């Protein structure tokens, strides 16, 4: 599928540039350097303009795109635009949502877009990172789960279920206004799960940075290797969340959370059964459920 | 797809029985009546046992299954088991999760199962109910959003985004221990969105019942027409949440929430833009984001 | 002070009756028995009516009051009314609030009434219970803090500060609708602090009962030895909360919480210093405070 | 009482200096100017050192203290120390707590200190400000209540009870990490109640500043006219919170909250009765209370 293919390109774009770098011509190297530090501008430059800016010919720009494996400069540009999409302001994103019309169309488009998001996530996600993340969770002294704004709901979901399996879960809640106070005892036996989607909260990054500095293992559920939190995470679980609207879909982040919960759960099956055995008795005694 | 087909059957099973009822033989009518009030038992009876219990022959049972459109009694039984699956205890459900093995398999199975869940939801969901729900949200004096246990995370997600668009949103929080206190002023100009998945909370049902009695419009995101809350809802948005594990996937419920948010948002585009314009200024002034 | 004196009477009324019992006349014993199981009715009976009901003379009733140390029947009745005051419905309590008039009077009356409440609490509180409570908190594997409705705010306050000193604090939050899920792993090394004021939440009592059954040590901050939670608590910290209005003052409960925090804190001074040393550095680094 | 008297001095110290300024000698004016911008340093200087620093004689310093109404320089210094006490780091404050010894002493000292705090608050509080605050709450389109860290518990308490009386209450919760998002629609018909105690949260001040800029009426419960939030509040309700320990007592802040609740409640008595009438029925129907 084309959308997915483009996304994979965008994911690999930077490492691709770095890998090809030694083999590039002198002029192409100038382009590479410029892109690595100005990809947000390049995403909206024509080949001609980019050549002008860097001081090379337009055809050098086109050959550079080819050298990276793109059929032409427009495909490279697509990949760059994909990269920066998450940096758009929310207002710009509302403007983009014009494609939606009546409710039935919206219902169909959104659910299909979420199916694509999960499928894209499945293709992209790093299985080794997932496996390591699951094992780290299992063995952590304490698990801190962090998400801000809408990402907090995913943090709560993940925390709710992990808490059934493990006795080490702490969801970082900001309701009293301070996250640092909650992680002040964090150490190298602990794990932080940081759920971070655009627009990336500065506070989130500060908290994870502190945790990292104290030696904690950092698992990050995020949408881009360029997310601030990804740069300091030990395991990055990349999640697609595109929806061309003012809402970032957290659906695939929730689906990955399901997978983490079941993975940890399968390793602690007896614990879960015992837990639910106890709960079923309580629930029955106090008529909690219908 | 087979999984989806079976699900649709299960959905229609009850109405199917009711529709066929006049054309059934006397013996088949006895079976129909018995099933309607004892489907949870019948789901685990052989055709022979069912015949015996009702007082008809085994072949009458088989013909009854055929009359409803099933190729045989086992298919009818499948549909019944689907119906009652959500009534299983959590311990029984953990037992069912044996199919999962290594982490990569889990990752793949869970994400694919969530894709199936959304696809199934898309096939099943009532577009008219969705449209009416969206319009009711838009015009409500006050919107109360209710979810307990893991469903609370979906309530918070939906509430978080609707609150950006509308000035009428109240997420019912039980942190101080009482939901009634929060809805005591509810009236016929209000809307309740009840997110309810197995095991169905008794408290949730009590709260929605009270709201209904006070004349509020009830929108329900749930997994079954047999969910207690579905019986009193004005709009039922049916969501698949199967995962053959101790976790119910709330992924499709979140996807439907995305659709509701965008649907309401598209009708209040100017309000959103203004809202985000203001927020962007604040965020910039106080460096909230990276 | 008279108010305080009456309160002490009310506290000791029941044990007083039990202590005097052997020395009472036959007729007085009948009164004692009747009061012990019907004090809520007796509180509003005249001496004459009580005598009639029990089958003794009015003068026997008066002598009974004298035998308990009251100057007359009205004083006994006061003590009984004090006892049942917390059982009044909230509507009845709003009716009682007529004494308040202009804002300045309210301000003065309320703050003075809170001073009286703390003073009364100080006279009444069991110092041994306080000391044991403090030591149990210090040594608990896990501390669960429970309060519903307005009492939740005291639970949060106590939990916020104890969490600075100890790594074992869990505030029971009902925001996802279930308290049992949070205490399912409770055991005999754990402590529950139950903050419970009228009207006594049934849920609170169920949760504490479960904890008690599992062997946990129960500390209760409550207003009466007749509070359901007091009957199963290991340490009862009695707190005055009268305010003759629809609000129960939690001021003395907060003051007792201050005392508990400082008592535990003084035993872990090095831990607190280290904690704040770390926090001060973080706060400075991230400009959290002015 | 001496403690209270000193506190009043400290409150009036700055305005006192300003009022006396025209009548001061030239040398005394130099002292006044120096103190106004360096009171934190002066608080720990001897009269001799202060004279030296400013370039006047020690006896000029003493006469300056007399001119302000103090019996000597040490009393002026006390008042200055009172002022800066809230600026101490938490670590310094733990060091100060050495006076506490055994549990019974702690219990007595803390409760007595809270009685003094409320009494001091009662002497200090501005009755006109209280009255205006109460009326503003009564008539607000929307009431936003803000408190961070431990002050959040007072915010929740005040919000919980005001919500029983009024349909306009919104407690600002940071659990999803952003306060601005919650006040983005604030306007000149709204009221913010800001509860702010040392160490004063920067975020709190930013949020209140934004509200003020949008024309909202600001009521502040704080401990000092030097609290950042006091400088922009329309009504400052000054509260004593000294406890010479690492905990700031919020007891008097809670007592003032009680007074506000009852004041607003007395003006909406019918509303409360109706509210509780409804709730009592629900509570009975669903057996919420014992």
UniProtKB/TrEMBL annotation, chains A, B, C, D:
It comes from the Bacteria. One of its GO terms (biological process) is carbohydrate derivative metabolic process. Residues 11-87 form the HTH rpiR-type domain. SUPFAM superfamilies: Homeodomain-like, SIS domain. One of its GO terms (molecular function) is DNA binding. Coiled coil: none annotated. Residues 133-271 form the SIS domain. The keyword Transcription applies. The keyword Magnesium does not apply. Keywords: DNA-binding, Transcription, Transcription regulation. Pfam families: HTH_6 (PF01418), SIS (PF01380). This is MurR/RpiR family transcriptional regulator.
